[in-house]
Each structure stands twice: as structure tokens, then as C-alpha cells.
UniProtKB/TrEMBL annotation:
The lineage of its organism: Bacteria, Bacillati, Actinomycetota, Actinomycetes, Micrococcales. This is RNA polymerase subunit sigma-24. Residues 14-76 form the RNA polymerase sigma-70 region domain. Residues 107-157 form the RNA polymerase sigma factor 70 region 4 type domain. Belongs to the sigma-70 factor family. ECF subfamily. Keywords: Sigma factor, Transcription, Transcription regulation. GO terms for biological process: DNA-templated transcription initiation. Residues 175-275 form the DUF6596 domain. GO terms for molecular function: DNA binding; sigma factor activity. It comes from the Bacteria. InterPro entries: DUF6596, RNA_pol_sigma70_r2, RNA_pol_sigma70_r4_t2, RNA_pol_sigma_r2, RNA_pol_sigma_r3/r4-like, WH-like_DNA-bd_sf.
Amino acid sequence: MTEAVARAYQEQWARVVATLARRYRDLDLAEEAAAEAFATAVERWAVDGVPPNPGGWLTTTAHRKAIDRIRRENRRDSLYREAQVLSDDTPPEPLGAIDDDRLRLIYTCCHPALAMEARVALTLRMVGGLTMPEIARGFLVPESTMGQRITRAKAKITAARIPYRVPAAHDLPARTSGVLAVLFLVFNEGYLATGPDTDPIRPHLTAEAIRLTRLVRTLLPEDGEVAGLLALILLTEARRPARVAADGTLVPLASQDRDAWDRGLVDEGHRLVRERLASGVAPGRYQLLAAINAVHTDARDARDTDWLQVLALYDQLVRLDRSPVVALNRAVAVAEVEGPEVALAAVDDLPLDGYHAFHATRAELLRRLDRRDEARAAYDRAITLSGNTAEAAFLARRRDELDERSR
């Protein structure tokens, strides 16, 4: 029964929270009532069985929990009257051009009155249903810091009376950059889950990110970065069937069975990249990342990868995004073109000591330079910081291979 509730949580959390947020205009109330509804499901479904329509059951239960909470808190003013009216089958007011509560909730959470990091974190919690530890790991900050950030963001929405609606058409492009950042992080959490007690891959999150990105693309068909993000996540998702071995170990790109890739997604991603190149408009960050992935997925064998083109694209990207993570990823291409010693020199000065991929990259470069003791220490650090079970297993195997070679 807990499996049924867990599956319902994956599939229905965003819908339940978004529906309540639209009706009650209160994110705290929506989140708390939804959580209570899922807690009730754990108890009731074990006795009564899973209802025919789990989503409807959860939404109805959450509405009742919300009204009960309003009554308990003696909030019998306008909010209580609104709850009575709206729960009495009264059609809600029109709130925007997109008929999707989750997108409305995303645009609310991504309002420019909030700091960018707060927008992303709040949406990951409210729409993606990620836990506080998962979000904190994604931002490389302590859990307490992330909790405070989300609490302040919800308070700001209430204090500023930020409306729950999709913005007007002329405001959409300016508001969409925050939405794209949210969708990209949601996708990444599904593609390489950070929770130690979760599956290494969470397909419901990647599927949700793709679905919502497609909707945004429908809304803004001329926006190059929307197309770029869609191409990027499609090309990345296409490789998912080959990413985890039968023993639960992550399979790196160079070792993947490329025949197992989803060719339909690869073809769609390549088509989007070609369309953006043909537009003649200078590419943005997501378009460049998509182009890099297009080069990787165009090679039928890892040995055929055009690393010179990959490095040239990263050179364009670092002019737009000077973050150390981009510099780290560029160093991987540098290692293939100019050698591991040059790449290691570029990596060592990056301020990423708390980032597992930094240590994993250093470990691989040190391994290629036959500096085994240093490589082993870097693998240990990467394993400690990695929250993904499949990735940690892969890193441990690579570290143990060093010991076997030393015998």
C-alpha cells in the first residue's frame, strides 16, 4: 500500500497543490493540506484499498483538510467565505492563457519579485514535490538555509499579493527565464536523483519537466531558449535507457550502448537544434548546451565524437556563463583535445570543493596521469559528496580498480 501512495505522490502531488493554490491563494495552506491528504491516504488505503481515481480522492481530501484548517485557525473572514463558495462547485475565475494549474503555479513561484534562487527552490518544492534535502543538495547549500529561503519566498508572495496566474502575453518572455531554470533543475533531479533513499533515476520528474517544457514551447514558439531547453532535455532523456547497468551502477556516456538510446527523442532534439541554427539568431545558454549534446549523440561510437566542435561550443558558452560548473565541464573537452595535464590545471583552481562532480572529474584526470594516490583520494571525496546511488557505485568501482592495478 505504501507503494501505491508513493506512486500517487509522484503523479499527483503537483496537481493537488496547484489546484488548492488556485482555489485558496495560499501556498502554505495548499502544501499543508496536500501533505495531510497524503498522510490520510497512507492510513485509509491500507484499510479501504486504493480508490479508482487516486488523484480525485486526494484532491477532495485535501480540500476538506484545507477547510478544516481554516476553521481551526478561526479564519472565518474572506478566505473562509471564498473556500465555501469555491468548494460548492462554483467555476473558478479565468486566470490566464494556459489551462494548466501547474504552469500557473510555476509562474507564480517564478515571479520577478522573488530572487532567482528562491523562485527555483520554491517551485521545486511546490510543483516538483522535492524534499528539502534534495533541493538543498541541488543548490549546494545547507538544508536549514534552503528551508529559510523557501519560507521567505512564500511569505513574500503573500505580502506582495502576487497573483496566481500566467502573466499577460507581453510579459511572458521576461518571466520565462526563471521558468526554464526551474524546469531544468526538475529534469536534472529526475535524471540524476540526489536522494540517498530514492531511485537513481526518477522518470516521473523527467517526464514532468519535458511535458511542461513542451507546453511553454507551445506558448512561446519563437523563443530560442525554450526550444534550446526542450532539445537539451530530450537529447539527455534519450540516453536514459543506457545509463544504469543491471547491477545498479551508472554507465558513463563513453561506455553506453548507443543502440539502446531512444532514437525518436534524439531525432527530435537534433531537429530543434538545426532549426535554431538556421534561424541565424545568436544562441543562448540552453541552445549551446543542446548543441553540445547534439554533437555527442550524433556520434555512433564514442571514439567518433568531434571533441574540437564540443570545445568550440564550450568556448562560446563560457562567454555567456562564467560559472565554475561550466568551466569544469569545459575541462572534460580540454582533456580530450589538449590532454589531461592541461585540463587538470584548469580544474584545480575552481571553487567547487563541495561539488561531487569536481572531485570525480579530478579523479579521472589524475587517473589518466597515473597519479593513483591522489586519484584515490579524489574518488573518496566524490563518493562522500554524491547523493546518487548509481553514481556512487560507479565511482567506488573506479576507485577499486586503482587498487587492483597496484597489486
